[in-house]
Amino acid sequence: GGLDKVLHVWDVRMMREWSNGNFCNPAQWMHRISIDNQAVLKVAIGPTPATAAVSTLQGLYMVNLTSSAFVPATRVQDERLGDSRQAGRYYDLKWSGGRDTLFAAGDDQRVDAYITIPPSG
After folding, report:
1. Is 27 helix (H, G, I), strand (E, B) or coil?
2. Percent share of the chain, pLDDT over 90
3. Which residues does residue 70 pair with via DSSP β-bridges, in sequence order?
4. Which of 4, 53, 114, 121 is 20 to 30 A (C-alpha) from 91?
C-alpha cells in the first residue's frame, strides 16, 4: 500500500519459482486491490493469513486478500465511553493476542477497538 492508492498483494512462493528461471507471468503471483481510491496508510495482516485490516485516508476496512472483497471495519460499541466517534484516519493498527480485536491509533490521539468481521467472498 501507499500513496498510489492501491494495495499490492503477492504470493512469494510463486515469486521464488519465477526467480529460479521458470517463466511465470507476474499476473499469476501479484494482484492489486483498490479500496476507496485513497492513499493506504497502514496494513495489518489478520485475523487470518488471507485477510487484513487496511487503513486509508478515508476509512478502515477488512480485506479478503484472495478475493479482493472488502467491507468497512465494525467499531466496538461501548456505552461506558459515551461516544460514537470514529477517527478519520488511523496511522497504526495492532491485533490483540487472540486476533479477534483490532486496535487502531487515530489522528485524534486515541485508540479505537474494532471487532473482526471478515468480508465474504
Report:
1. helix
2. 13
3. 63
4. 121
Q: Which residues pair with 10 in a beta bridge?
A: 30
Q: What CA–CA distances, in Å, run from 41 to 5, 25, 93, 120?
A: 9, 29, 10, 23
Grid coordinates given for 52 = 487484513
Q: Which amino acid is at 11?
A: D
CB atoms within 10 A of CB 54: 25
CA dihedral sign, ordered 107, 111, 115, 121: positive
User: Cell numbers of 46, please?
Assistant: 489478520
Alpha carbons 110 and 106: distance in angstroms, whole number = 6
For 5-57, how does the pLDDT look when each residue is reduced to its tens digit (9 = 90+)?
888 787 666 655 555 555 556 555 577 888 888 899 999 998 888 889 999 98
Grid look-up 478515508 returns 58
Q: How far apart are CA 116 and CA 7, in angstroms?
A: 20
Q: Would you say 1 and 7 are in contact if contact means Cβ atoms under 8 Å apart?
A: yes
Task: Report whether 55 contacts 41 (CB < 8 A).
Answer: yes
